[in-house]
Amino acid sequence: MLRSMNTLGCSLKYSGLHALNELRIKPVCVQSVRWKRKPRWLPVAKSKQFRVPERPKFDEGETLELRRLYDRYRTHLRAVRKYLKQEFIDLSASSSAALEGTQNEAEEHQLCLKENEEWNKQVALLREQRLLQEQEARRESILAKLVAAEERQKERMEKAEEMVREEKERAKFYITADNIDKAIEDALASPVDHNYAIDLEGHIYRGHKTKPSDVPPDELEKIQVQG
What we know:
Layout: H1 2-23, H2 60-91, H3 96-171, H4 180-189, E1 196-198, E2 203-206, E3 221-222
């Protein structure tokens, strides 16, 4: 009886230990995490209760540049949207908008052709008038040049005739084989002295052997000084 009781106690004890091992909670690694910012439910700190934060200041040039870039971005995006929308409408050949757009384009093309023809007519008329004016101006210029050339030719001919007349007049005094003896006798009979002297008062005494006393006072020749 005592042995059976001991056996029962041992079995109960073994069963309890096994149940305890099954019900035991496995340990969990717990790590505390601090708040990066103060939680919302906490009030403002007393040291910061009446502080007014300073408004951040941005560079004016940088602000304008960012605004310009943003406007440019919106413009490009708007253009891309419109382009894609127009492409979608054009690809929808069965839609009424595509048919209407095609008809409008054809009408606009015809209108442009008519307007282009009118412009071509106006330009052609203006070109003809300009060509006529240029032709008339060119004709007048050529006539003026011809008249000027005739006048120059006439002046050259008159100068040539005058030179010929002068040479004919000089030819009368040329020394030729016929009159060379007479020219030599005349030269020996009337020698020419090109020497002359000038005094301090500017009087000229011509001749190599001429003395100041040989020239009368009323026949003195004086140098003409040009001022």
